[in-house]
Design a protein that fits this description.
With 505 residues, the protein is α+β, with helices and mostly antiparallel strands. Among the domains are: 167 residues, 2-Layer Sandwich (Nucleotidyltransferase, domain 5), CATH 3.30.420.40; 116 residues, Substrate Binding Domain Of DNAk, Chain A, domain 1 (Sandwich). 26% of the residues lie in helices and 31% in strands. The protein contains ten helices and 29 strands. The strands form seven sheets. Strands 1, 2, 3, 4, 11 and 12 form a six-stranded mixed beta sheet that branches. It starts with a strand and ends in a 6-residue tail after the last strand. Keywords: ATP-binding, Nucleotide-binding. Belongs to the heat shock protein 70 family. It comes from Blastocystis hominis. This is Heat shock protein 70. GO terms for molecular function: ATP binding; ATP-dependent protein folding chaperone.
Length: 505
Amino acid sequence: MDHTLAIDFGTSNSAAYIFKRKMEVLTDSNGNYLFPSYVMYNGDVAVIGNIAKINLGKPGKYVVASVKRLIGLRYEDYEKMDQKNIFGCEVVRGEDGYPRFVVNNQGGLRSCIEVASEIFKAIKKRADYYGSPNVYDEAYLTIPANFDARQCKAIKLAATLAGLTVRKLIAEPTAAALSYVLNSDLTFLPQEKMIVYDFGGGTFDASLLTYDESSGIQVLGENGDNHCGGNDVDLALCEYIQNTVREEEHIELIPPSKSARRKSSRLRSITDIDLSEVNDALDTFTITAATLGVIINPIIKRTIDCVVRLLENNDLQPGNISYVFLVGGSSKLASVTKSLQTLFGSSCQFPSVDPDHCVAFGAMCLLHSDCTNPKALQKSLSTSYGLGIGNGQVLIMLKKGCTLPLTSRYYTFTTTVERQQQVNMKIYQHSGNVDLTERFSMVSEKNCHYIFDLELSLLKKRIVAPAMIDITFSFDIGGVLCVRCFRHDNQELLYNEVFEPLSGT
């Protein structure tokens, strides 16, 4: 534990905790516990944090912003984005089909993974200095609840490039709840349910949880929007400012001004903004709290819709929720609190947590609990996993709703072709409900989502068909699916493939 970091890698800001005799938030030399998630390239040197953030949008400066919003996505995913101008640098297609940032005037390129790794390197460097003589080479890393396999794998690789071995991936809302329930004097009743409303710089997550001392935290469900966050609030404000200045002052601002966007982010807490840096002819722009609420209401509504879907998916009403935790910098908006209080009513409590670093703190609490109380977190599988067995049928190997970590029973398959050299099967996800009491569950391929191939070479393993093969699936809390195949006669391991991480938790 004394060499493991707990990191909340954020779209706008990142935070980290270390253990040095006790759990401590990691700060910079000025005592700031937030690491702005901006990377400026100055030749071959990467500058991270406040200096990079200050230079965002300045002529001749190459600053990458909001990399978390793009990491793990392909270039065609970027092309489908409504807001393509939030990343600071020009984005182009790489030879592998993934986005690249243009980071100098010679056309130098950096991948999302490379950019993110610079942020992890900066956090690790600070931890190694602050925690000396400890060297921090492992991490508990938080991720948005609905990051898919590609995104999780990419963010994990970025940490690996920074010299960190990722021991566990934790959903951000779950970590936020852990930061409170594991350090609270309150007694939570087993039937009490809580919502974590995590509104960050680039993503939104909502999680439904329960907690009691005997079984720990159980995650009942999650919903979210990976393209809804503080960036969208800033851009909505920029658009309003641009349109108002055009109509009232007949001045055309360059859309969307990065300098104005930097300034507009401050409007989340103040009502005046100085536009003189944007245009010499402009002075102070005033906006009322009521107008601010109207501007960002469509964005807030998107988050509330996610919460409502989460409740509906679990057959719950707002009155069934006892606690709502507000997490992420964007959750500080007055419109957020007002909307949630309207939805959940006066009987629901809104416990006080630090929205900026409670996620990193929760990850550290889990790290500490893993060493002292392994039952602090329980999660259930949110989607089933199965194996295509032909004739359009999928055999469910791991059932939705079962508590993690989870291992399936062994299923025995027999090759059907004489001198068969290869076994090819498909692995599927099934989001529908299955009967947990049934020994065998079969569903149609039409109702499943294909995710991976299982390819086992019998020739390489010197297996002569016909042969009997045992197959088992396992899934852990970090979202890792493991598929293993064994010879039925002597249990020799033939196949051991890890597909990580997946959004099944």
